[in-house]
Design goal:
This protein is mostly helical. Helix content is 77%, strand content 0%.
């Protein structure tokens, strides 16, 4: 992991708690931006950076790198699908994205 990944993780931890609290209805801040959208973008950006750094450092991507990236990108992709098409889980997506952001932030800090 690089310093850039650690910075992403440090930003994602409090942001994920904010998304979880807003998603559960325990906190309403009235932010002028969509926190879940920014969180989903951060999740995708961190995993793309992880894949790029793994490729440049190792010279190849292992299947574990790809599976880990796919697991953490899936909730962000689900958010975009729900936002664009309104297909499924619209009420639960913020909580799912927040929990996965929290897990991803903790994973990136190890």
């Amino acid at each position: 992991m690089t310093l850039v990944n650690k910075i992403f993780a440090i930003v994602m931890l409090p942001f994920s708690l904010l998304i979880i609290l807003e998603g559960t209805g325990l906190l309403k801040l009235g932010l002028p931006f969509n926190a879940v959208l920014i969180g989903a973008i951060l999740m995708i950006a961190l995993q793309v950076l992880n894949l790029v750094f793994a490729k440049t450092h190792n010279g190849h991507l292992s299947i574990m790198n790809i599976i880990t990236a796919a697991v953490f990108i899936a909730p962000a992709a689900a958010y975009f699908l729900a936002a664009l098409f309104g297909l499924f889980l619209e009420a639960n997506i913020p909580i799912i994205v927040g929990v996965m952001m929290l897990a991803e932030g903790l994973y990136a800090l190890h």
